[in-house]
């Protein structure tokens, strides 16, 4: 092997020192994101020291990072226990509190996203399915895979007086299986039944607005502008000139 080849092989085998891969970076804002996201995924209150060890961030030693962490709008601190927890959109921890929150949102005129509820309580999807079986809530699902999407409170219960009857699943499936025919097939079906299509009343375009007839107003007297001020008061310039003796 030539000397040049040996030098090239030795160069490839050299290992240069590199910064340790901490996974959280050295930027304060990056470390803050890691700490808050872990607190969110845990779902349980944590000690500051434990959170710093797990996320490999200097939360307990870096004053700037700690101040940003405490001031974060999603971080809650309990001074009695000195524990930190994530503030979710909804404080849901069991089926009863879940139903209460669903009722509150439905009364406001809207439902709740199942994904958002799951972030607050991991057991929310299972509890929602149980509430659906009990007739307490209505659930909408995705068309592709049938995953839970939105949940609404069922204000009308079948067992209540005057609340009506629960529609059986067989009829619900039959109703949803019906398809609205296209325009051509719809016209054929109407013709077979002896029905006719009623055309919408066409709007007659309006012509230009006619001017109102009435008495013609007298022409306004044109105001004269005096240019020969030295003749003002001697000759009426608004009248035609008539030579003397005519």
From TrEMBL:
InterPro entries: TFA2_Winged_2, TFIIE-bsu, TFIIE_bsu_DNA-bd. This is TFIIE beta domain-containing protein. Its main location: nucleus. GO terms for cellular component: transcription factor TFIIE complex. Residues 16-93 form the TFIIE beta domain. It comes from the Eukaryota. CDD domains: TFIIE_beta_winged_helix (cd07977). It comes from Hermanssonia centrifuga.
């Amino acid at each position: 092997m030539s000397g040049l080849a040996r030098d090239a092989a030795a160069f490839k085998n050299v290992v240069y020192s590199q910064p340790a891969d901490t996974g959280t970076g050295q930027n304060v804002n990056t470390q803050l994101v890691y700490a808050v996201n872990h607190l969110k995924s845990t779902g349980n209150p944590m000690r500051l020291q434990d959170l710093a060890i797990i996320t490999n961030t200097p939360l307990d030693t870096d004053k700037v990072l700690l101040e940003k962490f405490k001031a974060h709008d999603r971080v809650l601190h309990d001074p009695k226990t000195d524990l930190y927890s994530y503030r979710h959109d909804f404080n849901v921890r069991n089926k009863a509190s879940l139903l209460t929150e669903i009722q509150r949102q439905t009364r406001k005129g809207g439902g709740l996203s199942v994904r958002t509820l799951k972030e607050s309580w991991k057991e929310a999807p299972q509890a929602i399915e149980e509430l659906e079986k009990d007739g307490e809530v209505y659930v909408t699902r995705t068309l592709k895979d049938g995953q839970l999407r939105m949940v609404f409170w069922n204000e009308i219960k079948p067992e209540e007086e005057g609340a009506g009857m629960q529609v059986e699943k067989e009829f619900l499936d039959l109703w949803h299986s019906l398809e609205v025919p296209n325009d051509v097939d719809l016209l054929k079906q109407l013709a077979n039944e002896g029905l006719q299509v009623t055309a919408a009343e066409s709007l007659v375009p309006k012509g230009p607005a006619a001017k109102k007839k009435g008495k013609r107003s007298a022409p306004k007297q044109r105001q004269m502008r005096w240019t020969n001020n030295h003749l003002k008061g001697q000759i009426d310039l608004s009248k035609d000139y008539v030579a003397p003796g005519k």
